[in-house]
Design brief:
With 111 residues, the protein is an alpha+beta fold. The protein is built from 3 helices and 7 strands, in the order H-E-H-E-E-E-E-H-E-E.
Amino acid sequence: MDDEPPNSWFSRLFKPRERPALLEQKLSREAYEDYKALLMKARPEVKGSKITVRLSDGTVELEEGVLRVKAKNRKTAEKILRNLHHYEQPPSLWPAYGLSYSLKRKRGTVL
């Protein structure tokens, strides 16, 4: 068994699966207002007090006092959280940090 290559069927069979990650951060009122102003630049989906920005690698949700980052794994979720402040920069630079506009769909059209 020791002489098998690392990508053998055995290692693939017992490889730990990456689990979806959810990072949740409690926010003060001031931090909530700052994140709200920041995320509104990305054309988020707004439902009541919940703001959702969908990225290619995950989702950022902001509710009163709580910021949630959902991604395919913890490493990606942490990267999204680290890069959120780049929304302060011009939109042309956002893709370099994995950020994008949130696309809203209404009746089959993309706005």
